[in-house]
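Sample intake sheet
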Amino acid sequence: MKKQVTKEITKNKIQRPKSDHELPVTKRLLDLTKQELKSDITTLRLEMKAGFNMFDAKINDIKLDVTAQISVLDTKITKMMILMEDQNDRNRATLDANTMVYEKIVDNDSRVEKLEERVFGRKQR
C-alpha cells in the first residue's frame, strides 16, 4: 500500500488580513446590513399594522351599515305591524256591524213571519 502524502500548510502560507479593510466583510458593513434589516422589519411591521387598521375600519363600516339597515327594517316592520293592527280593528268593527245587521235581519224576518201568521193565518213563502 502506498502511503498518501499530505502537505502541511504552514502559517506563513495562509494570508491573513492585516486590517479591517482587507476583510471580505467589515464590522461597519455588517453593522450597516444589520441596521438595514432592522429598518426593513420595522417597515413591514408598520405596513402590516396599517393594513390591519384599514381592515378593521372596513369591518366597522360594514357593521355600521348593517346596523343602519337593521334599524330601517325594524322601523318598517313596526309600521307594518301598526297598519295590520289598525286593519284588524277596522275588520273587527266591520264584522261587528255586519253581525248586528244580520241579527236585525233575522229578527225582522221572524217578526214578519209571526205577523203574517197572525194576519193571514198561515206561513207565507
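Comment: The chain has a mean pLDDT of 86. The CA atoms of residues 19 and 26 lie 9 Å apart.
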